[in-house]
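User: I'm writing a tutorial on reading structure tokens. Could you give me a worked example: one chain, its sequence, then its tokens, then a sentence or two explaining what the tokens reveal?
Assistant: Sure. Here is the example chain.
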Amino acid sequence: MIIKRDRKPRRNWPRMIVRRNTPVIGEHRPKTIVRRTPGRGVEPPGGGRMDPPRGSWFPDIPKRWIALAATLTILVGLAGGGVWLCQSPFFKVTRIQVQGNRTVPTDTVLSAADVLGQSMFTADLASAQKALYALPLVSSVRIVRAWPHTVKITVQERQPWGTWRQGGVDYTIDREGVVLGMNPAPPGSPVIVSSELGSHILGDRVDYQAVAAAAEIYQKLPAVLGTTVTEVAFVPGKGVQVTTANHQTALLGDSSSISYKLAVWAAVVSAAQKQKLTYHTIDLRYGNRPVLQ
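And here are its predicted structure tokens:
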């Protein structure tokens, strides 16, 4: 019996395709072959083993050990490169430039420095500079590297300043009292006469107190006393003694307070002129208590 219904059907919904992983009863699916690597992976809860994640070369080694190994490899490479650079012939000192020397021979400078053939990286420039300072006529030294294989040495020599007369021999000295030889000093330079015994050779040092006092006396005495210096003598046990062009002699002792001693001497000269006193020698070693003779 067929019954007709006037009721309209409900809204037509779009059909949905549902994929099912579960096989339908009676359906035949091909088997999947999975290759597993023995000894690797983690045992899952349900049995079997899991393969390690892709991209991991050392799954069983902690990452910090891998980083440490990589760092050590880099350091070893850098050390090997440094050794190669130090031993490379390209970075050997093959050229030395010497400048500033006039009296000291260039060969003497090269021999004292002794850096030719050394590595530019390890050449001991400090020892070379010390050896050059030991040369009697050298006042200062500057050594620099000029890559890739040159060393530049700039020498400043000692300059003649005055004459040290001892035992009838005139020795040329510099401002620090170093004996430079027996060549004549510049005209008009200070002359210090020493009553010491003995002789001097190149590089010796005379009494520095006498040299320092003579340098200040030659510079300041003409302006303070209105006369010139004819001789500065060094007397062992007494110190520096000065003779002026007006035939006065002053005993100053050491090189301390030269300006003050000259001022006391000028005050004595002024007082002696007013009182019409005559003297030939003044002892200024006792500060403001000069002794007249």
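What the tokens reveal: Helices lie at 63-87, 106-113, 125-133, 208-225, 258-275. The mean pLDDT is 82.
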